[in-house]
Every structure is written in structure tokens, then in C-alpha cells.
Write a structure and sequence with these properties.
The chain is of the alpha/beta class and 168 residues long. The chain is built from 7 helices and 5 strands; from the N terminus they run H-H-H-E-H-E-E-H-E-H-E-H.
Length: 168
């Protein structure tokens, strides 16, 4: 999955080879079971990937400094099984909160909860979860930043984020 997202031409075994080498590997049945069991809880996080190229060889050979290139791999994982439900590869300068919507569109079943760290706190995350609320309530568990302010300071706290801020 990561190899194809990076656009690399590296020999990676296909499903047939993996199935032949590991008897009992049933990916389609496991995915169907996970989707049929009801709402799924989703853990979202990102990691940095350093992209090596010709510049790295020049640095090693001649000691010259080159600008390193990074990518971010955003993952949505089912916490119970550790299964990767969705992934998105972006440049390093793209905001994490804006990647929640593309991740959630890759998950077809109902959501039970979306859990992430504080870097995902913000309006883009809650706007991405809002359309999924109509089918069943989705709990958003993201710690607010230390500088977080309620969205409606004068009215009743209605959103989950505002309720979390009120509790803190």
C-alpha cells in the first residue's frame, strides 16, 4: 500500500503469492466480518516518511547538504484488530486536520468513534465527522489544544468539542 502511494517500482508480492505462502490468509472475509459487526472505532494518526533520492547519494559521497524531502502518511486504524482502514499520503506542509475527510470517505461502514491526538483538533475534523452523524451518533475523542476556545461562548454548548472544553 505504501509502495504504491509513493509511486515506486519495487517488487512487492501480490495477493496470490502471499496467499500461497501463508495458508489461511483470508483478507476479504476478515474485512467483511469487520464491516458487518457494526460501527467501527477509528484511530487516526500520521507519521513522517523520508524520501531518499539521488541527493542522498551526493550527500554521502561529497558531504554537501541537500534539502531533504518528507511525506506524511495519515492512517485510520481499527484499534481492536490493528487493521488499516484508510490511508492518505500528503506532502509535509499539508495540515493534518484537513486529512480526516479523505480518510473517512474511504471507510464505508458506520462509525462508532473517531479518536485522534490534539493536532487533529479543529473545525475541519468536526466538519468531516458531521455528515456521518446522521446514521448514528459518532463520538469524537480529540483533546483540545491549550489555547482552544468554544465555538459559541454565549449560547449553550452544543458540539462535542465545546462540551469537552466545558468539562476541562
Amino acid at each position: 500500500m505504501i509502495i504504491s502511494l509513493l509511486g515506486l517500482k519495487v517488487g512487492v508480492p501480490d495477493h496470490t503469492t502471499c496467499a500461497r505462502r501463508s495458508p489461511g490468509l483470508v483478507l476479504a472475509a476478515a474485512l467483511a466480518r469487520a464491516q458487518a459487526s457494526g460501527p467501527v472505532h477509528v484511530l487516526i494518526d500520521a507519521t513522517g516518511l523520508k524520501v531518499y533520492g539521488a541527493g542522498e547519494w551526493l550527500v554521502e559521497k561529497h558531504g554537501a547538504r541537500s534539502r531533504r524531502e518528507w511525506r506524511k502518511l495519515h492512517l485510520a486504524i481499527a484499534p481492536g484488530s490493528g487493521e488499516v482502514l484508510a490511508c492518505e499520503l500528503t506532502r509535509n506542509d499539508e495540515g493534518d486536520a484537513f486529512q480526516v475527510a479523505p480518510l473517512l470517505t474511504q471507510i464505508s461502514g458506520p462509525l462508532g468513534a473517531v479518536i485522534a491526538d490534539g493536532v487533529y483538533d479543529g473545525k475541519p475534523t468536526h466538519q468531516a465527522v458531521a455528515p456521518r452523524q446522521s446514521a448514528s451518533p459518532v463520538t469524537v475523542v480529540i483533546p483540545p489544544r491549550s489555547t482552544a476556545m468554544p465555538s459559541d461562548a454565549t449560547g449553550a454548548m452544543s458540539s462535542q468539542r465545546d462540551q469537552h472544553l466545558q468539562l476541562i
